[in-house]
Design brief:
The protein is an all-alpha fold and about 200 residues long. It has 10 helices and no strands. Helix 7 (about 120-130) packs across helix 9 (about 150-165).
């Protein structure tokens, strides 16, 4: 299967507004990849497929998630978290994507994970800051993204965690771990840091 087929299949999975979001994520991911030295084609493909399953009915997501034998502990949390790992599995099994870096970036784009790769960070951040997004912290995140993926992504995780706390919702532990891992990277000046200031 080639990119044109993946584009057509992805567009069929979602309403027009979400397709516009996906196009924005593709644009932002490609720009970030070029700025920070990642592969723009990998970034584009992961961005294209990141929300592939998001608009499937929750029952279908749960059924497919269980059918593929994905980790059951995620089912105890917000169903919005299912679409990333599920999209990665669908991309592998049904769309023929074999690039593990692309699959990981799809898998972790919502929750994040500890020690995120450069591509993980790019796709996760692109999902936050694509041009169609409009929330109070997004302008600051976009500005930070010009010089530091980690600082911008940290602002995104902080915003998400604050939102969940304000709503009295459970915070998925892996998101806290991802946030704390970014703090550790920034404090230690880790080789994973992609500062362009």
């Amino acid at each position: 299967m080639k990119l044109d087929a993946w584009i057509a299949l992805t567009q069929e999975q979602m309403p027009a507004r979400r397709w516009m979001h996906t196009q924005g994520v593709r644009q932002s991911a490609t720009e970030l990849a070029e700025r920070y030295g990642a592969d723009p084609e990998q970034a584009d493909l992961a961005a294209l497929l990141h929300d592939y399953c998001k608009f499937w009915p929750i029952e279908r997501q749960v059924e497919a998630y269980q059918m593929y034998g994905l980790p059951g502990e995620l089912l105890a949390y917000d169903p919005q978290l299912l679409h990333g790992p599920l999209a990665a599995e669908v991309a592998r099994r049904e769309l023929g994507i074999a690039d593990e870096a692309v699959l990981d970036a799809i898998r972790w784009h919502t929750s994040g994970r500890e020690r995120m790769t450069l591509l993980d960070k790019i796709v996760c951040l692109a999902d936050y800051i694509e041009p169609g997004r409009d929330f109070p912290e997004v302008a600051r995140m976009r500005e930070l993204s010009l010089t530091s993926l980690e600082l911008s992504l940290l602002a995104g995780f902080d915003s998400t965690i604050r939102f969940l706390l304000d709503k009295g919702k459970i915070v998925y532990p892996l998101t806290l771990a991802a946030r704390n891992s970014l703090v550790d990277e920034l404090r230690s000046g880790s080789n994973n840091i992609t500062d362009r200031s």
